[in-house]
Amino acid sequence: MKRILIINGPNLNLLGKREPNIYGSTTLYDVETSVKKKFPNVQIEFYQSNVEGELINAIQQGMSGAFDGIVLNAGGYTHTSVAVRDAVAALKIPVIEVHISNVYAREEFRKQSLIAPVCQGSIVGLGAKGYELAVEALVENAS
Amino acid sequence: MKRILIINGPNLNLLGKREPNIYGSTTLYDVETSVKKKFPNVQIEFYQSNVEGELINAIQQGMSGAFDGIVLNAGGYTHTSVAVRDAVAALKIPVIEVHISNVYAREEFRKQSLIAPVCQGSIVGLGAKGYELAVEALVENAS
Amino acid sequence: MKRILIINGPNLNLLGKREPNIYGSTTLYDVETSVKKKFPNVQIEFYQSNVEGELINAIQQGMSGAFDGIVLNAGGYTHTSVAVRDAVAALKIPVIEVHISNVYAREEFRKQSLIAPVCQGSIVGLGAKGYELAVEALVENAS
Amino acid sequence: MKRILIINGPNLNLLGKREPNIYGSTTLYDVETSVKKKFPNVQIEFYQSNVEGELINAIQQGMSGAFDGIVLNAGGYTHTSVAVRDAVAALKIPVIEVHISNVYAREEFRKQSLIAPVCQGSIVGLGAKGYELAVEALVENAS
Amino acid sequence: MKRILIINGPNLNLLGKREPNIYGSTTLYDVETSVKKKFPNVQIEFYQSNVEGELINAIQQGMSGAFDGIVLNAGGYTHTSVAVRDAVAALKIPVIEVHISNVYAREEFRKQSLIAPVCQGSIVGLGAKGYELAVEALVENAS
Amino acid sequence: MKRILIINGPNLNLLGKREPNIYGSTTLYDVETSVKKKFPNVQIEFYQSNVEGELINAIQQGMSGAFDGIVLNAGGYTHTSVAVRDAVAALKIPVIEVHISNVYAREEFRKQSLIAPVCQGSIVGLGAKGYELAVEALVENAS
Amino acid sequence: MKRILIINGPNLNLLGKREPNIYGSTTLYDVETSVKKKFPNVQIEFYQSNVEGELINAIQQGMSGAFDGIVLNAGGYTHTSVAVRDAVAALKIPVIEVHISNVYAREEFRKQSLIAPVCQGSIVGLGAKGYELAVEALVENAS
Amino acid sequence: MKRILIINGPNLNLLGKREPNIYGSTTLYDVETSVKKKFPNVQIEFYQSNVEGELINAIQQGMSGAFDGIVLNAGGYTHTSVAVRDAVAALKIPVIEVHISNVYAREEFRKQSLIAPVCQGSIVGLGAKGYELAVEALVENAS
Amino acid sequence: MKRILIINGPNLNLLGKREPNIYGSTTLYDVETSVKKKFPNVQIEFYQSNVEGELINAIQQGMSGAFDGIVLNAGGYTHTSVAVRDAVAALKIPVIEVHISNVYAREEFRKQSLIAPVCQGSIVGLGAKGYELAVEALVENAS
Amino acid sequence: MKRILIINGPNLNLLGKREPNIYGSTTLYDVETSVKKKFPNVQIEFYQSNVEGELINAIQQGMSGAFDGIVLNAGGYTHTSVAVRDAVAALKIPVIEVHISNVYAREEFRKQSLIAPVCQGSIVGLGAKGYELAVEALVENAS
Amino acid sequence: MKRILIINGPNLNLLGKREPNIYGSTTLYDVETSVKKKFPNVQIEFYQSNVEGELINAIQQGMSGAFDGIVLNAGGYTHTSVAVRDAVAALKIPVIEVHISNVYAREEFRKQSLIAPVCQGSIVGLGAKGYELAVEALVENAS
Amino acid sequence: MKRILIINGPNLNLLGKREPNIYGSTTLYDVETSVKKKFPNVQIEFYQSNVEGELINAIQQGMSGAFDGIVLNAGGYTHTSVAVRDAVAALKIPVIEVHISNVYAREEFRKQSLIAPVCQGSIVGLGAKGYELAVEALVENAS
Question: Is I130 near chain A, with CB under 8 Å?
Fold first, then answer.
């Protein structure tokens, strides 16, 4: 049975309440529920924090052998955090970056991802659906 | 029955033969076969050209009502073609950008996509699998 | 009798159907008809292509002595094509650049024209009317 | 009867005397005479000043209802004046920017116009003829 | 017997007629004739097109085993085409870049070659003679 | 009765002790005391943390209906934190940015504020007095 | 009794009439009236001009001993005028910069203030209220 | 007898009173007196204004035949005024740029002179002495 | 007896396990042990955290008089954290920056250190040995 | 009989011993021997120095009439030396730039050549063979 | 017995006499004496030159087998010399870069070291003490 | 009696022979003769070298007390040499920079002088006359 860790960064706890024209009205809890329902045979763990260092702690769990892959939506830290990048680069399991909105169609500073180059790949702008697609890609890889 | 057009740009006809350490050994024909097999209930059309203007002609078919969505891998034109971008922007149906390799982990000039801001979203770095994920996202949208 | 060649680049075949809030609802055929009607004593030829190299072929006709001037709307190639620029620079007859929308009031990448420095002048943002003004300027020059 | 205000900025009072290889030998008075002669049914007012603030005062007349459009050649202030730009942006009537020489084929610092994005359009590099074309475009708009 | 393919890009069909102060009065046919005469024991094929995608098609012939090396003058595409670069990078046989004029002594945008980094080397500014030197280098390599 | 939350970021707990030539000798506690004294009819809450994520938690309290406005001095995170910016952008109540020193007269990297564009306004360089002026502006707005 | 000079630059004479969605409907006369009413014990002088040099003349009055401080809204000159900056730098009395709109949330070229580094501080985006807050800060300083 | 016009721009009327650590304690009147005394056989005229357009008017006097050369200290306009540059470029008599302080050793924005490229030469950082050296160079040229 | 605080930032808890080709196989505990052994007469305290704000808290201990110097390896925050920089700048005791790998020979974004300019000095690329050299320099300073 | 001077700059005395994966195992003496053997009817002189000024002295010999052309590999000075560039620009005989490795495929700072714009042309990345090709081009020119 | 070569570049012969507020009053001879005294069992050679090419000659001695490591303070050439960098890159023995002052806390152009990326590491800002620390690191490496 | 050292850098030995349209036909010897003739009561020493380090040696003579001032034309090193700059900065006697041509009206890379900020001032574009003016300024200073 595959084990996937899904990590969400700053302000994603507001999903569904914050700028719904950009992020939609689905909450993070809804996302968690529907992803788990879609993959009944995958063991999925959800984590969210606003604190950069706690996210690093979470990513470092990927070194323990407890997971087969990570889905990471680092929110605003995507564009500024060398420290989060370094944590990802330290892992041997695949990490897929997800963004709900199309960050490449927004402000200039959202167009650079420090994290993308050390991930296996990215899924951007496909809404909450992106989490499902990422899990699917990880499960298939891990088969 | 959904109808999806998958457009591939310059040098993708070499897939499987060209720089396999980056692009893998799957050919474009393999991709076409496996995508069609995976979605037996979707009508999928494949197109490839090395010529920028012919790709624009293909994208403009999206105005005819003949398709419900487009998957576009514009290859090297992704980073330089305002004309391809304008063709995409003219459409009312959704377009999803796909790249086989993780373009954000390669040369500097591959990090800017002129096309991403006018697409619905992007799937990057997940290999040939990215085409399947894109079709899945379009089908669901189009339901 | 003066002879003028009017060349239109990528996506201008969609004029009137594409993003009408930016480009208006006049079609390219309407433009052709009304320009010809306004200048009954000028021999005017219209050409459109989405393919960069075919536009270069068309511009190179300006070396044959068959035309007294060219009106060029290079569309999206305006901002990226050194090759189109070189074709214009090779001519001895005057070329006037036309853009329907005010490209200087849109995205950053539309603010640089590689073609403007080798033209006699530019007419920008005056809608389809710009074609008439360009022909008028060429005819007067050519008297 | 249409009323058009034509505003000329710094050093245009030297037209015909200054660098004739670039600007030609027509004087500003010649331009005024020939524009008025060409449009006998349009009420045309000419203004010139070397002082940035006086040009702003002139542009602000466009708020009074006394004019149907403005033709503006802001000379050297084109490239540096946010204040002139703001004055144009405050107007509700159309403003067309004119430059006698092809500013895009000259020094680097002449390639950026702060004023173009808030005008209806620009006519560049067509000599004194550009004033006539601009008036023609405004009159047609205003019909 | 060595086999060399010489590919010429946009506007090189005008060689000898276009801006002779920069490019000289030798035509492309003269170049072909004199290169073939100089290397009677090498099988040399000449190709020219203004269309970016057709040049890519020509470069892709280098994968077929039919040639031992390519001489490429990509003209204006040299500075803008990621797609041409990708086609070159896909080859296993050596490619040498040639420019007739000294592109480093001309406009700023001609100073960057996207193609040079994936070629074996470059010969620049030595006129039509550059084609001969490139063939000589390829033949020696291929011995 | 109006309720205002005043949030202070990293190193502001050192106020009065740290680089007094730049920041003065008033402590953060002094600021709190004097602001509360000046506005006896406003309910004011003070918060300080060095941790980026805890500041985001504090800003997110602005979604609860418990406050009518926020005064935010994000210290060093002002110039680097997309995550703090996103938290501010998620709010519907007004936020005013305050800086004690004139950040525009200091190092280059302090001249860009990622936070300013999503605030209602900024008060910069007026010392601890800036907090009082910000509260005054919020109270008046909120009336 | 404190004496404050409030200087307003180009286009601020249009306040209330110009782009009211950005600048509000209060006129400059309204601002003057309400600031004077709020500070009956301060001697306040208002000045406005569209001419850069006249604003410099006004700022130079700050050397005469006639004023205890200056409030300066330099409008469009804020971003381009080294000469206004030099005039401010020559003074020994404090100058506070005011902007009615949040210039940091608008066009790119409005984000740099040449004047801010030589002022005591800035108040930005708080509407006409910003003038009152600036006077309050100067009066307190001057006590 | 040679005739020289010496033009001084914004804030130079404050010379001797403004930032004496940078500009010294000599007043502009002292400069005028000592230059005239040093060159009793040269007819020297002094002019100062803070208004950009009035400086342009003064420079345009150089077209009248009334002067053999101009010494120009354009102050803060040196770095921002295309319009002053154009006025200088229109002249046929030599213009020498003078700056009292070493502008190249000060802020970044003072390091670019728009005016220097159209002058005969520049004298920078030699204090009020620079005016004398400039007159000497012009007189010698004019012999 | 000298007292030195050694602070380690994000991901340094993984030392020895993470990318050993870059960072070697020594663990942070090994470093601590060997530094303490080498300096038996210095009181050395080790601290590590992944959380930016907690590192700031640790650095602020340098204001308490409890330490004579700090050795700081801020990891990925080195390149992005103005807040950490401000904490260092607030101290009166010397801080020496240490990096285990040669950050100048790696990715572009690792070449800028925001922290270096406010430290006494830096030791880079000498492996775990760098910690010993830094302590030696601090002890000598403090003598 | 043609006379050619071949000048080699810093570190080229190490050729064959230094980084052979980049520069090959041929020594500079081997190059000299084989070039002279290939052109028995050309008088060829070799010079190498690590000192920038001595290279300038060598290049200045090109003014004496003793040589018909120069082949210059300026090594690391290629990218930084305005002084070497000026020496080349002073010559009337042709200079061809040679680089053994493909400098365009290496570090960013090797991509700009200050010398290329003042040479007749460049030959790059063709190994020691490049010297022969350069001599051949010079001899033919000089005929 | 280990053998270390210490190379000092331009102006370091002035150490102790030049700008003592930045560089201290220790002379280079003092440094040499104290380093040799501290490491009686290491054979240390000192070299200084102002000439770039002579420094390259000195560095090239590191290819002879005569030394186990080099300490290099390249002074002003650190920031500009590709040629010195290439000489270092050619060596197989370790090189450690030393700077007496904290170059990162000084002018902008001192912040980039071309040499650092090809050294084993750097020691910056620790005064003459830096030379001792570098020798210690080399000796340990070489053990 | 004043003693002045005049130092000339690379390629100035070619003065009069090199690019006379830019530098005139006066030789360096003519300059020396006429400067000495003009100032019979000043002891003037001339020095020229193409070698950067020898120029530094010459500048360092300014520390010996043997000279009252230096006139420095560093030629092409002006724009690239931090080492020459450091040598000038080490002096206590005044140094005046001279350039014969107007370097600010030439190529982009000649517009930055690393040396100007540490000199007392600069004289640019006044031909060989500039040396005389510089000596005059130094003599007057030194009185």
Answer: no
DSSP H or E segment with residue I67: none
Query: How large a percentage of chain L has pLDDT more than 70?
Result: 98
Interface partners of J (3+ CB pairs, < 8 Å)?
A: E, K, L
- The count of other CB atoms within 10 Å of the CB of residue B140 is 14
Q: Mind telling me the catalytic residues of A? A: 23, 99
Predicted complex ipTM: 0.88
How does DSSP classify residue H143? -
Question: How confident is the model over F57-114, as pLDDT tens digits?
Answer: 999 999 989 999 999 999 999 999 999 999 999 999 999 999 999 988 888 888 889 9
Q: Is I124–K117 a contact, with Cβ atoms under 8 angstroms apart?
A: no
pLDDT in tens, H62-93: 998 999 999 999 999 999 999 999 999 999 99
> Which pLDDT does position A117 carry in this prediction?
92
Question: Which of I119, I125, I133 lies at the smallest CB-CB distance from K120?
Answer: I125
Radius of gyration of chain E (CA): 14
Average pLDDT for chain K: 92
What whole-number distance in Å separates Cα of residue B36 and Cα of residue D21? 66
Mean pLDDT of E40-62: 95
Strand partners, D75: none
Q: What are G45's two structure tokens?
A: 């002088």
d(CA E89, CA E78): 14
Residues in chain E, overall count: 143
Q: Please report which confidence band the pLDDT of residue J23 belongs to, taking 50, 70 and 90 as the band edges.
A: confident
Residues 6+ apart with CB under 8 A from F2: F41, F42, F43, F68, F69, F138, F139, F142
SS3 helix, strand, coil % of chain A, rounded to 5?
Answer: 45, 20, 35
Count up the domains in chain K and report the number: 1
Name the minimum distance, in Å, from the CA of A27 to any CA of chain B: 19
* Three-class SS state of E64: coil
**Cα separation of F124 and F119, whole Å?**
13
Retrieve residue A48's tokens: 């969210």
Nearest 5°: the CA angle J36, J41, J45 is 45
SS (H, E, C) I73-102: ECHHHHHCCHHHHHHHHCCCCCEEEEECCC
Q: What's the predicted TM-score (pTM) here?
A: 0.87
Angle in degrees, CA B36, B40, B42, rounded to 5: 80
DSSP classification of residue G47: E
Question: What pLDDT was estimated at residue J143?
Answer: 47
Structural contact between residues G82 and H110, judged by C-beta atoms closer than 8 angstroms: yes
Q: What are the E-state strand segments in chain H? A: 2-8, 42-48, 69-73, 95-99, 121-124
**For residue J19, which amino acid is it?**
E
Helix boundaries (H) for C61-101: 82-89
G78 neighbors G104 (Cβ within 8 angstroms): no
Q: How far apart are CA K113 and CA K109, in angstroms?
A: 9
Say if CB C95 and CB C69 are below 8 A apart: yes
F91 with F115: CB under 8 angstroms? no
Give the DSSP H or E segment for L40: none
**Side chain identity at residue L72, one-letter code:** L
| Beta bridge partner(s), residue F73 | F8
B20, E65 contact by CB (below 8 A) = no
Structural domain of A22: 2-142
| Region of residue L87 (phi > 0: left; psi between -120 and 50: alpha; otherwise: beta) | alpha
Kindly report the CATH number assigned to the domain that includes residue B44: 3.40.50.9100
Of the residues I82, I84, I91, I92, the best mutation for testing chain F's interface (the one with the most F CB atoms within 10 Å of its CB) is I82
Task: Tell me if H136 sits within 8 A of H2, measured CB to CB.
Answer: no
Catalytic pick among F23, F29, F79, F104: F23
Contact C68, C3 (CB under 8 A): yes
Backbone φ and ψ of J98, nearest 5°: -125, 140
End-to-end alpha carbon distance in chain I: 10
Element (H, E) at G81: none
